[in-house]
Amino acid sequence: MCGIFAVSAAKDNILDDLFLGTFYLQHRGQQYCGLSTYAGDGIKIRTHRGLVRATFSDDLTGLEGRMGIGHAALKDRQPIKLDSKMGEFTICFEGNIINLAELIDELKKQGHSFYTDSDIEVIAKLIAQGDDFVSGIESMAGKIRGAYALIILSRGKIYAARDKFGFRPMIIGKKDGAIAVASESCSFVNLGYEIVRDVRPGEILEVEDGELKTVKVLPSDLVQYCTFEWVYTANVASTIDGMPVDIARRNLGACLARRYPVKADIVGAVPNSGIGHAIGYAQESKIPFDNVFIKYDYASRSYTQPTQAERDREAKIKLIPIPAKIEGRKVVICDDSIVRGTQMKNDLVVKLRKNKVKEIHAMIACPPLRAPCLYGVATRSKKELVAHEKTVEQLREYIGVDGLAYAELEDLSRSIGKPLEQLCTSCWTDAYKV
Amino acid sequence: MCGIFAVSAAKDNILDDLFLGTFYLQHRGQQYCGLSTYAGDGIKIRTHRGLVRATFSDDLTGLEGRMGIGHAALKDRQPIKLDSKMGEFTICFEGNIINLAELIDELKKQGHSFYTDSDIEVIAKLIAQGDDFVSGIESMAGKIRGAYALIILSRGKIYAARDKFGFRPMIIGKKDGAIAVASESCSFVNLGYEIVRDVRPGEILEVEDGELKTVKVLPSDLVQYCTFEWVYTANVASTIDGMPVDIARRNLGACLARRYPVKADIVGAVPNSGIGHAIGYAQESKIPFDNVFIKYDYASRSYTQPTQAERDREAKIKLIPIPAKIEGRKVVICDDSIVRGTQMKNDLVVKLRKNKVKEIHAMIACPPLRAPCLYGVATRSKKELVAHEKTVEQLREYIGVDGLAYAELEDLSRSIGKPLEQLCTSCWTDAYKV
Amino acid sequence: MCGIFAVSAAKDNILDDLFLGTFYLQHRGQQYCGLSTYAGDGIKIRTHRGLVRATFSDDLTGLEGRMGIGHAALKDRQPIKLDSKMGEFTICFEGNIINLAELIDELKKQGHSFYTDSDIEVIAKLIAQGDDFVSGIESMAGKIRGAYALIILSRGKIYAARDKFGFRPMIIGKKDGAIAVASESCSFVNLGYEIVRDVRPGEILEVEDGELKTVKVLPSDLVQYCTFEWVYTANVASTIDGMPVDIARRNLGACLARRYPVKADIVGAVPNSGIGHAIGYAQESKIPFDNVFIKYDYASRSYTQPTQAERDREAKIKLIPIPAKIEGRKVVICDDSIVRGTQMKNDLVVKLRKNKVKEIHAMIACPPLRAPCLYGVATRSKKELVAHEKTVEQLREYIGVDGLAYAELEDLSRSIGKPLEQLCTSCWTDAYKV
Amino acid sequence: MCGIFAVSAAKDNILDDLFLGTFYLQHRGQQYCGLSTYAGDGIKIRTHRGLVRATFSDDLTGLEGRMGIGHAALKDRQPIKLDSKMGEFTICFEGNIINLAELIDELKKQGHSFYTDSDIEVIAKLIAQGDDFVSGIESMAGKIRGAYALIILSRGKIYAARDKFGFRPMIIGKKDGAIAVASESCSFVNLGYEIVRDVRPGEILEVEDGELKTVKVLPSDLVQYCTFEWVYTANVASTIDGMPVDIARRNLGACLARRYPVKADIVGAVPNSGIGHAIGYAQESKIPFDNVFIKYDYASRSYTQPTQAERDREAKIKLIPIPAKIEGRKVVICDDSIVRGTQMKNDLVVKLRKNKVKEIHAMIACPPLRAPCLYGVATRSKKELVAHEKTVEQLREYIGVDGLAYAELEDLSRSIGKPLEQLCTSCWTDAYKV
Fold it and tell me: CA–CA separation, A284 vs A365, rounded Å?
């Protein structure tokens, strides 16, 4: 999971937009970040471990320029910078290469050596073998299996490309004299960019001096949008491939309210991921939306927490129940999904019961998760997924709630407004269409 | 503004509770924090610039003990540690001393010299002149004019005291074998402490080995609870002097809905301070609660931002409007109060208009602010208060909304459930009862 | 052990001189440092843990001024800043108060409370009780027993004072329009200050606008200069109370060569403390001076090493023998003193023997150390001093050298050029004249 | 300029030896350092900006192993780690590749891309194209023009190689069960390694389990030892290609005393580089060696100073003259060489004159520098070399001394004990034998 952002202006320094545009993708990755810009001389690049705002707040000087790319990631430092026969360039991407090991072996046999074992180095090396960036991207796309949305900054041009299945979102924005390409449109809202359109599956774009050009579209019979973007991943202020995220979530909440009506006093959310769904449930059911839990603002965020144990402890610190709102009441609590079920079971339910709730009805905005994601959205094994070998009734008992309901695949299709065959549903079906 | 926390156990190490109890008061002050404990040898103390979790996360070793006090503050490092004829002690407080300069002058004339110009050093020096801590607190209380809630850690005992008017909240919690005293009960919820009662105005408590004793109550004819705690300051999970904060906010929102009914499509909040009020407005008006703005989690928090310019820039980065929810719609937006009006005017309204809202009705959960707070809750001058010399209609025009309404003093009294004469209302009336 | 530096100019910003003047006293204390200046508004102060150049290199901005004081110390952060009836002032000192505990008790009984248990806070509090700084210093001097050289920075004037026995060195320098007062004149050499004279024992100076005035001299029958300054403590570029340190060391080396002539191939030093003595020995004996050990420049210094174990490890890393110079040769090795004897025994002798030295003759530039220093120069107990209960012959065997010789008390008097009764010799005699 | 160190043990953890061995080469490069070890699983690597001891002091955990390599450098982070068909390896080197740009161009044309523009990446990529490490090194040696001494750590073996001209020193040491290879033998002295022999020009060594094997010797008709190692670069405790550095320096000083006898009172040095030469001059001339300048220990070292301006300021801070030793006296002052002459002219001479020296005679231990070094020892242009277009008499006047003398080429040959044709003398002759 990462966020990528690129911006090119006809005349102005884009550094502020680059910094903020990347910052507004921080929810897609919190461990590493990097910015790279070009201002006529060498391509500059700076990467940090940590959050965009924390690490770059005193470190933007010297990065001024009219074009640049940025990255926020969970796992590795990007962009990376390489020098090649096309000259120097920086590159970053969001995605996952399934046949990575094979590609590395083949390159080593050709006499190549590798600094890292990361996807991005392989992608960059493959592109650098092309005659130019476009042929390099096309050739790379022919060799890899997997998902990608990538951006390249060369001396004078930006290239952006989305894989032919459209797994990962990528959207174009513009404002006076400037073009931006981003993982999500939430980066555009406060920066004043207007949505132009999504990058098309398979499309390769060239951006120069604030102007945009499609230089190639790799053909494909199939598109496979990642459904999880609307359910959980994306920011509520974003619109992904034509559907606003917060509307999709409200629709999902409303679907749940129709499928699983309950008698309850209030509808609350697991903040923040369940709020959009809870609003939909409340609006459809006419049961009042209310605070059940609040997220305590100062919990974590200021440093990294890569282990599961640390994430668990964080989770317990983060949410405070509102005793006065729940004591003696029947509560509907909405969330986007259940992965291991431990937060629901060990944190939320425990806190609600301690504060003398009368009934708990958990509403989950997608079907039970049954398979890991091949395309890198999450790396959990099947065994970690609590729904892998339990029925919904067993889950309800395990978690300790009075009611438990899940949205169904048709609810996803209906709420997102796309035919089911265009949505990647493998995490629920364990079947891969690609 | 600060948060203070004290804890004493009969047998167990209290360090985790002290750390988390202080952490859950972080919303009362973000610039400095400190912890002090006693474990039979010398009193230990550690203070930091920065957030409790960020600065203490790797720095708790050696602070183990059965009793301790903690502080989170906006302005100065506390606790401070002094050695005196009663032995060494640490002390911290929340409050404001109005006659500080006079007290310092008098002490200097007696041959005293000062490390700082802070309230806490004067309070500590005054207490250190007593024969013991209780007589010292009593004598200090006789000399100062102002508000305080203080805690002292000596070698073996904790003392806690609240000024006789009860300006600042202070509440007692207990769990098996342990007693805690805190600015707010939100510190108790996740730590498993049960509310015992509020510390009484004028009360001096002694806590030893997890046992609590009232050693003195300074008499007073008048109590003056700070109304702003329920309106804005306190955490929604807290109960202050008997009234749950989130219930008070819901009541205020409902009052506004009855006084100022409007035809609108959705009710939203300025997050997070307006959410409780918005829920009340939505429940009473039957207009659906919905996302209008979201607070972007990664905005600031990880470092300090003491200047107004920085706070303004932060504010604009922090909130993202949800375009799909507001375009073409009539929106009620609730907030706790309007201080300078600049955030509403220059940030919120601008963002809503850019995203093509149809109508904006702002609902403010307290009367127009007309005077600075003598007791240290906020240090703005009258001139900074936008309501100081404008009518509500002028304010509406200035801010650029289609409707603007304020709660009234009786709404506060009714929503909080206390007679108006027990509530300090000076920030709205500019009249001080003390 | 500390170094203190004060400077006042008629017109110019003294910050560079203050910074460098304090830096050149770093050999007197490496753990803490601080600078304080006055520029017409409030007195500024900044203290750090660490070395002057390392910690202040990026942190001088805002300290500009026409007067200031600085401190480099082993044990505590100075200057400290206090506000008093004379207004605010900063103060730092070098010295040791023998009756500290009694003075603290007495002040506590008067209702005073203490931030620290340091000498400087007591000294400052005692001075703050005076009617003005001069009467305050005089009254403080009447109450304490011990050694001090202190400087005070008030709003507009600097005060400097040396105790009536003259234990600690303090010297006055001047250059065009500026007066400096320092622990040692090595601070003056590269800054272009010319030595005016030493501060007299008991003298209280007032410095204002680059002009110097003696405002008081506390009378005394006895002076007691710390002999160790010439033997070890002071920098070789300094002149202390009229005698250049490096001349005194050369004289000591020559005394040793006359008293203990040996047949040897080369004369070397334990760098750096033994170099001056070795040069004297070589010049007098006509045996060539040569490299026996070199100090490896990058050993430590960049961080603090407060424990003995760390200092031992450092010592072993620091010195490299020169194999080609010592193999098969008779070597004289000079050092200033032997404290515990462990470095000589476990490091130097081991390294020389491993590199096949033929004979080792150790020449020590002062008598065997037999008592701790009451005045704070070093805090070792008698038990730690290897010479406390061993004869010279036992010491020679213990250390494992072929010859061992010590300078005698008369050598000190003769080499320094002062009558023995003016020199504090208590570390060798265990007898205190004060 | 860098230092490299490798160590392999049969059984023991070599981390301490690796750390200290690398540390003792710090004088060869102060900006970056790195360590890499192998313990049966993956090869570990850690690099830092800063000094070895400062940056690794808290950062050795996890680097335990039975084999490892280390690097201290002025310009870039090494070792670097690559994965290739021979598996993963780390590599570092000292040297300079003259045809770097051509090699990079050629590799780019073959489809390679580069992370850096450093020598080491090119060297590593060329080696990675071989069938194994030995054939890779041989093939690399056939393609590059320049000087190198390199070490490679693979999974289980260390390779070390010195270019066929022997430009850069490299020496083998052993102790019980362990073999070390280092830039200089000063790394061995305190670690207890005994010198085995120098690595031969053109030799490729394989080290495994504390055992050493010559696997190849690249033939050459010519050797060209860098003369500057004995004059200035190497540590005085080292022996380079059979000649102890400190003996060579004493010989050079003695040559100068014979060639240029002067009547003077004392012989001093520019510390530390001139001390060995001054000792030789004093011993030969019978004029006493004495302190003229001391290096103030706390000047710099704790941080990096890459610009010339900063180095100049440092130089002026670093040396303190000893007023009492020089006033009214005729002084011989020895140094290794004169580059730009600015330190001598603007710092040393100024300080001596200010302190009223009678005469200054500067003795320089090598001929006037007339050409930059192609092999990377120093990167100054001809224009920067003050001797480039001045006679010795002009230099004497320019610098402002009463006498100035240089050693001659024959003095170098005689003092080092090698025929002139084996010594690289291009910095004095501007003629390159290779």
Answer: 14
Partner residue facing C83 (CB), from B110, B117, B128? B117
Contact assessment for residue B294 and residue B319, using Cβ atoms and an 8 Å cutoff? yes
Answer whether A84 sits within 8 Å of D113, measured CB to CB. Answer: yes
Q: Kindly report the average pLDDT of chain C as a whole number.
A: 94
Domain tally, chain B: 2
Residue numbers in B near A323 (CB within 8 A) = 189, 237, 239, 244
Pairs of residues, one from chain A and one from chain B, whose beta carbons lie less than 8 Å apart: 148
Nearest to C147 by CA among C67, C243, C220, C234: C220
Active site residues of C: 2
Asked if D280 has any chain C CB less than 8 Å from its own CB, the reply is: no
Q: Is D322 inside a domain boundary?
A: yes
Distance between CA atoms of residues A420 and A424, nearest Å:
8
pLDDT at A432: 83
The answer to the question of residue D234 being in a domain is: no
Contacting residues of B for A283, CB less than 8 Å apart:
288, 290
Band the pLDDT of B165: cuts 50, 70, 90.
Answer: very high
| Nearest beta carbon to residue B113 from set C84, C108, C109 | C84
Which neighbouring-strand residues pair with B147?
Answer: B96
**Shared domain check, A348 and A277:** yes
Is residue C15, in this structure, part of any structural domain at all?
yes
Same domain, A203 and A269: no
- What residue of A is the nearest CA neighbor of B268? A279
Is C322 in the D-facing interface, judged by CB distances under 8 Å?
Answer: yes
Same domain as C147, residue C251: no
Residue A427 is a catalytic residue: no
Strand order in the sheet with C43-49: C43-49, C32-38, C67-73, C2-9, C178-182, C171-175, C194-198
Predicted pLDDT at A189: 97
Residue ending a domain, choose from C193, C223, C253 = C223
Q: The domain spanning residue D94 has which CATH number?
A: 3.60.20.10
Whether the CB of C42 is below 8 Å from some CB of chain B: the reply is no
Q: Which of B24, B236, B307, B320 to mutate to test the interface with A (most CBs of A within 10 A)?
A: B320
Residue B374 phi/psi, 5° resolution? -70, -20
Are B211 and B258 in the same domain? Answer: no
Task: Round to whole Å and give the CA distance between B200 and B214.
Answer: 10
Shared domain for D262 and D313, answered yes or no, is: yes
Query: Residue A98 belongs to what domain range?
Result: 3-223
Domain closes at, from A159, A192, A223: A223
Same domain, A211 and A298: no
Q: Do C26 and D298 touch (CB under 8 A)?
A: yes
Q: Are residues B253 and B333 in the same domain?
A: yes
CATH number of domain containing D378: 3.40.50.2020
Q: CA of D283 to nearest chain C CA: how many angstroms apart?
A: 6
pLDDT one-digit tens code per residue, A275-300: 999 999 999 999 999 999 999 988 76
Residue contact C320–D24, C-beta within 8 A: yes
Sign of CA dihedral B143, B146, B147, B150: negative
Tell me the C-alpha distance between B110 and C84, whole Å.
10
Helix ranges (DSSP H) in B59-169: 100-109, 119-128, 133-143
Q: Domain for residue A132, yes or no?
A: yes
Interchain pair B84, C128: CB under 8 A? no
For residues B196 and B300, membership in a common domain is answered with: no
Say what the pTM is.
0.85
Q: Tell whether the model's pLDDT for residue D305 goes beyond 60.
A: no
pLDDT of residue B302 exceeding 50, the answer is no
Please state, in angstroms and as integers, the Cα–Cα distance from residue B222 to each residue in A91, B225, B424, following that order: 68, 10, 11
Residue in chain B lying closest to C45 (CA): B115
Contact B297 A27 (CB under 8 A): yes
Read off the pLDDT band of A86 (50, 70, 90): very high
